[in-house]
Specification:
By secondary structure, the protein is α+β, with helices and mostly antiparallel strands. It is built from twelve helices and nine strands. Helix 4 packs antiparallel against helix 5, helix 9 packs across helix 11 and helix 10 packs across helix 11.
């Protein structure tokens, strides 16, 4: 697994903020950096690609995602990302920024928690043009290292507002639906922060001030999984990420993820993925070309 934690620091376009906007009109990434990103790597920051013309395919957490005209892919910190080879005919904007940059914005953006499990957004023509214009303004502000941080953040806030609206465009029917999505986001945040603690569904529901039945309905309604199934899927996904990210034994991996019985963990992994851990490691070698 390629270590890319230092890349945004090296490529940032502002002295005060860890942020970068690039497009097909730019010179592109330095060759050594680009080669590192062509291999599977764990994202240390938020990443977005907005396609204006053409089509490209990115790999995120082992899934191939096709992005076409008027679509945007976002990748969150800790996800495993793999860039495709260069496509000279592709017109796009790319955006990267870190958590600190996000914390300086005047409001939070629920879509970044990805409560609905959607990483690909599609914009209608008018929204596509607005997003393109904001990207152009943000890119212009970042032309110099000492660009006005306040203006940069204001445009970033506007851009993320467009993304947030697109994410929830089919899920804003009433207050009850919005409340349900907010509760789902709360559930996902708890799982992200306390994944390896293997909390009971009852204790999670208590933290959220909802009943067990309400929590089941919320999670099942939006994800198609029960809370327990969702947590299991998330643990297996984290196992896959760690297998990509570092060399570790099954026993070490099991203990790291909060399992006291490595054999049980191995059986669970195979049940959920259809592959043993050794078979999965072979798949990683094929994907990364190592």
């Amino acid at each position: 697994m390629t270590d890319t934690t230092d890349i945004l620091e090296k490529l940032k376009q502002n002295d005060k903020l860890l942020i970068r906007v690039s497009s097909n009109n730019d010179e592109g990434l330095p060759p050594d950096v680009y080669q590192r990103l062509l291999k599977p790597h764990r994202k240390s920051h938020y990443f977005f690609i907005f396609v204006i013309k053409g089509q490209t395919v990115h790999s995120v957490d082992l899934q191939q995602i096709t992005i076409a005209d008027g679509q945007l892919l976002f990748v969150s910190p800790h996800q495993i990302h793999l860039l495709p080879p260069k496509n000279e005919e592709l017109e796009y904007f790319k955006l990267s920024f870190d958590q600190t940059c996000l914390s300086l914005l005047p409001k939070s953006f629920l879509f970044l928690v990805n409560p609905l499990g959607i990483q690909l957004l599609t914009f209608e023509e008018d929204a596509k043009q607005r997003v393109k214009t904001i990207f152009e303004m943000l890119s212009q502000l970042l032309q110099t290292k000492n660009g006005d941080a306040e203006l940069i953040l204001a445009n970033l806030n506007t851009l993320l507002t467009e993304f947030n609206l697109a994410y929830f465009k089919d899920h804003r029917s009433d207050d009850a639906a919005n409340s349900s999505i907010s509760k789902l986001a709360q559930f996902k945040l708890i799982i992200e922060k306390e994944l390896t603690e293997h909390q009971s569904i009852q204790s999670i529901a208590k933290k959220m001030s909802v009943t067990n039945n309400s929590l089941y309905y919320i999670v099942k309604n939006h994800t198609g999984l029960s809370p327990k199934e969702y947590i299991t899927n998330r643990l297996v996904l984290e196992a896959q990420r760690k297998l990509y990210y570092s060399e570790t034994s099954v026993k070490e991996l099991a203990y790291t993820l909060g399992f006291s019985d490595p054999d049980y963990f191995s059986k669970l992994f195979k049940k959920e993925t259809g592959k043993s851990i050794s078979q999965f490691l072979e798949q990683i070698k094929d994907l990364s070309g190592q």
